[in-house]
Amino acid sequence: MLNRYLWFTGLIILIILAPLFLSNFLVVFLTEMLIMILFAISFNLLFGYTGLLSFGHAAFFSIGSYVTGLILLHIYPSIPLAFLIGVIAATLAACIIGYFCVRLDEIYFAMLTLAFGMMVHTIVWKWDRLTGGADGLVNIPRPPLNFLLFQVDLSSIASYYYFTLILVAISLYILWVIVNSHFGLALKAIRENSDRIQFVGINVRRYRLISFVISGFFCGLAGAIFGPFLKSITPSIAFWTKSAEPVFMSLLGGTKIFLAPAVGSVIFMYLKEIISGYTELWMIYLGAILIGFVLFLPGGIVGFLYEKLKGRRLGGIVG
Amino acid sequence: MTPSTFLSFFLNGLTSAMTFFIIASGLTLIYGVLRILNLAHGSLFMLGAFFTYQLTQWLGNFWYALLFAPLICGVAGILMERIFLRPVYGVPIPFQLLLTFGLMLLIADIVRIFWGVAFRTATEPKVLSGTMNIFGVSYPRYNFFVIVMGVIVGIFIWLFLTKTRFGKMIRASSSDREVASGMGINVPWLYTSVFGIGAYLAGLSGVLAAPLRSIMLEMDVHTIVEAFAIVVIGGLGSIPGALIGSLLLGQLNSFGTLYIPRFEMAFMYVFMAIILLIRPKGLLGEEVS
Q1: Rounded distance, CA B217 to CA B119, Å?
Q2: Residues B18 and B147: beta-carbon distance below 8 Å
Q3: Burial degree of A229 (CB within 10 A; 0-12, 13-18, 19+)
């Protein structure tokens, strides 16, 4: 037990000190990894905890990203204002899309989220007067954060890394509290047997919708962080392949343990980054690894280790 | 709008509807029998188009491509099923999607190794170049050929499924897998054949579409999501449904460019969402019990 805490503390210290000893390239990479971790874990609230497979979560990521970017570019260069409006927009979209989607189950739910996701993609891609079309938004500014007594400059790579780290850490803490609350327990129960939970008197549809909206909120935040991070965004962040990323990150890590999708994102991003450093043909390796993973390690990497170490089974995945 | 412009737009819609129908019928056939949503189906379409480019380059003849390219795709499909899909029939849907996503990435890079990132074009055969007269509209011969091919393929599928012993076996295991296997149908063998046929159809669609558009990477991810929309609108597993979905989408694409330029695709997804909400099993799928 003590050993585990030591490992965990060590890891946190490493994450905090990372910009001091890592190259700029790696700090940028770590920042993107943190954003994707938030994306994957908030997606997994719906997938792993509620048992609903969404194939359209890029909608919330991209709405958060585009609205934040547009506010920063055209309305007023203030990070808190832009993030607030971006996340509100993503949450509103999640309310509307979720309202319809939670009526369906399983593969039909996945297909409906795919349809909504692709609607958002088409709008982002084709409404070029607003969104810049295929070129997307470019030169998104990264203004300093204004507190009453002092300013925090976000223009350096390290400062944006810390900014991201703090936002992601707070979000993950909130999500962790949510999944461990009574509400989170009800979600897990819905995942295991939604009919029985309906009989107990819990409004399954409403719980699913709340889970959907919370998930959309944090995906929107991940998107909001992403815009000023990359400084330019394109419609590809709304395409269905972007929605597929958190699905596969969660599956890679494991869907039943809170932080497991983070491990999946780290592995996914690492493979993508490392392989593409050696060869342009990274997809062939990533594809082969995904295939090998499904054939030999279903249950996720963390799930696999957990079951081996604890001798306990986590149960199958639904969907 | 004059009747002749209307007719030419209608025919354009019909042409793309037929290529949609051929790929979507393969996808829906595979889903109906194997219960697998194959994300790599668009990749087989892309392979068909690239094979067409290559074979017309080598042999200077589109007809060889029409003959061989779908066959190669069919064989690729059979290998895919035997090697990769057979072990995962029992696993949950998300893992099957992950697996076929992996196959999609793999095929995309294989295409990139052989053909690079440049756009390619394939030319139609000489007999079919130029235009012909349909009710006073001068219309490309090749497009008319595609429409005819779509009708022929549709009739073939219908005859095959309703009149042949093998087709009846497919329909039987599509409606109830366990009973079908209890009646002595060799299910694993049937799965392989159905996947092969589906892959053949995806390849055939790629061949027919090749002279109509530029052949490039990323055809796979765009085609697969359109095919999904068609199959969902018509009803997962229903071939007549795939036909209706394709005809709708074809006309929407064609007239959409006229009335709602740029947003015609958004309308397709709106339509897909409405269908899912009122009839989750699609226009021609069975009612949800």
Answers
A1: 8
A2: yes
A3: buried
Please list every residue in chain B whose beta carbon sits closer than 8 Å to the beta carbon of residue A295. Answer: 84, 87-88, 99
Judged by a CB distance cut-off of 8 A, whether residue A271 touches chain B is no
The structure's pTM equals: 0.89
- Does A290 sit within 8 Å of B95, measured CB to CB? no
Beta bridge partners of A31: none
* Interface size, chain A vs chain B, as Cβ–Cβ contacts under 8 Å: 126
Amino acid at B107: I
> Which residues fall within 8 angstroms of residue A101, CB to CB, at 6 or more apart?
A52, A54, A109, A112, A113, A116, A212
CA–CA distance, A201 with A191 (Å, rounded to integer) = 15
- Tell me whether A239 touches chain B (CB under 8 Å): yes
**Using CB atoms within 10 A of its CB, is residue B183 exposed (0-12), middle (13-18) or buried (19+)?**
exposed
CB A116 within 8 A of CB A55: no
> What whole-number distance in Å separates Cα of residue A264 and Cα of residue A261?
5
The answer to whether residues A285 and A251 touch, using CB atoms and an 8 Å cutoff, is no
The residue of chain B nearest to residue A128, with distances taken between CA atoms, is B262
The answer to whether the CB atoms of B272 and A115 lie below 8 A apart is yes
Residues 126-155 of A with CB under 8 A from B: 126
The answer to whether B212 faces chain A, any CB pair under 8 Å, is no
> What ipTM was estimated for this complex?
0.88
Test B272 with A287 for CB contact under 8 angstroms. Answer: no
Cα angle: B204, vertex B81, B199; to 5 degrees:
5
Give CA B202 to chain center in angstroms: 5
List, for residues B60-100, the tens digit of each pLDDT value. Answer: 888 988 999 999 999 999 999 999 988 888 788 888 888 99
Q: Residues 55..114 of A with a Cβ closer than 8 Å to B: which?
A: 100, 103-104, 106-108, 110-112, 114
Report pLDDT for A306: 67
